[in-house]
């Protein structure tokens, strides 16, 4: 069964893999420099770059679906900023994948593409951090998570009321909590 909402569950994959990608590329480049076969060692960065792109695409698709649910609850500019950052990350991940795959080219073309892919992967990581930051602002500053929250049943309780009606009484009247018959808080 898929989690609901899906976007927050998926978005961590491309971000985590984009953190690993420059490191995997650096290890592969070092191994190639020490004499390892470029086609053997470079396959790991290419596979990881493909995983970043595929997971970024899935996160963007899920974000578009989840975005419809929250767009009336959050600041439109903040939502747009996050959407654009996510789409930029996806686009850059495709660019990184193409450059990284070019590392398989023979001779000097591959030799130039491999370190260029490493530089592009670092830029991709920066784009991922910006997209993640914008998403974090949506959740923690603009209340995007509230669109997915289940009602607690206490929305109608007036916490500033001066009467002696307590939350416990409200819950007890709804059958949620057995009434203790006392308004005192039990000792622990």
Structure write-up:
With 188 residues, this protein is mostly helical. The chain has one domain. The chain is 66% helix and 0% strand. It is built from seven helices and no strands. The longest helix has 34 residues. It is elongated and about 60 Å long. It starts with 6 loop residues before the first helix and ends in a 15-residue tail after the last helix. 28% of the residues are buried. The model has no long low-confidence stretch (mean pLDDT 84).
Strand and helix map with partners:
Layout lengths: L6 H4 L1 H22 L4 H4 L1 H28 L5 H26 L5 H34 L26 H7 L15
Features:
mainly alpha; 7 helices; 188 residues; 0% strand
Major sheet, described briefly? Answer: none
For the residues shown, what is the average pLDDT?
84
| Unreliable sequence segments | none
SSE pattern: HHHHHHH
Rg, rounded, reads 25 Å
Shape: elongated
Q: What's the number of helices?
A: 7
Number of strands: 0
What would a concise description of this structure say?
This protein is mostly helical and 188 residues long.
């Amino acid at each position: 069964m898929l989690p609901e909402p899906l976007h927050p569950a998926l978005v961590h994959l491309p971000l985590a893999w984009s953190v690993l990608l420059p490191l995997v590329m650096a290890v592969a480049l070092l191994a190639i420099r020490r004499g390892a076969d470029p086609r053997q060692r470079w396959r790991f960065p290419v596979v990881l770059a493909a995983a970043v792109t595929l997971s970024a695409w899935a996160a963007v698709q899920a974000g578009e679906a989840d975005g419809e649910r929250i767009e009336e609850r959050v600041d439109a500019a903040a939502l747009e900023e996050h959407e654009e950052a996510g789409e930029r990350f996806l686009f850059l991940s495709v660019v990184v994948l193409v450059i990284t795959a070019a590392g398989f080219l023979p001779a000097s073309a591959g030799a130039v593409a491999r370190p260029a892919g490493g530089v592009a992967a670092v830029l991709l990581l920066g784009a991922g951090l910006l997209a993640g930051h914008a998403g974090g602002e949506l959740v923690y500053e603009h209340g995007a998570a509230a669109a997915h929250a289940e009602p607690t049943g206490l929305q109608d309780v007036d916490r500033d009321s001066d009467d002696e009606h307590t939350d416990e009484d409200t819950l007890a009247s709804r059958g949620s909590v057995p009434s203790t018959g006392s308004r005192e808080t039990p000792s622990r």
